[in-house]
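A brief tutorial aside. Many learners find it easier to grasp structure tokens once they have seen a single protein encoded end to end. The record that follows does exactly this for CHRD domain-containing protein. Read the sequence first, then the structure, and try to relate runs of similar tokens to stretches of the chain.
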Amino acid sequence: MRRNILYLFAAALFFFTTSCVEEKLAFTVVESPVLGLISETSAAEGMVAFTGTFYELDKSGILDQNIGIDSIPVAGLELRVESQNRALLQTIVTAADGTTLFEMPATELEGVTRLEWTGTYDGQIFRILKNL
């Protein structure tokens, strides 16, 4: 009985001394500086089209129930639309209302399973994924 308690104590001690430390994680996740809403839209025959709307989120009024989080359209944001293999498909820019249109022949997207919308905003690089 005493030997089992000793083993149990040693196992508990081992468990608590070998737990994960946050600094040792494989990678850090940083939130995107913009909110990207991407949806498929109607296109001409043989074409594929996606509309993207990009917002900066102003969280300064998050604690005030009358203000909340404000979404501000991001104008002039340059975006690279890439395949899952990081092959560049198109470079597009958002309009004054934060919207942009990605349109391409469906035949050129054969084998593509995911679109990656990448850009830089306020010096921070971001990547937004959209599965097809």
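Self-check: The chain has a mean pLDDT of 86. If you spotted this yourself, you are ready for the next section.
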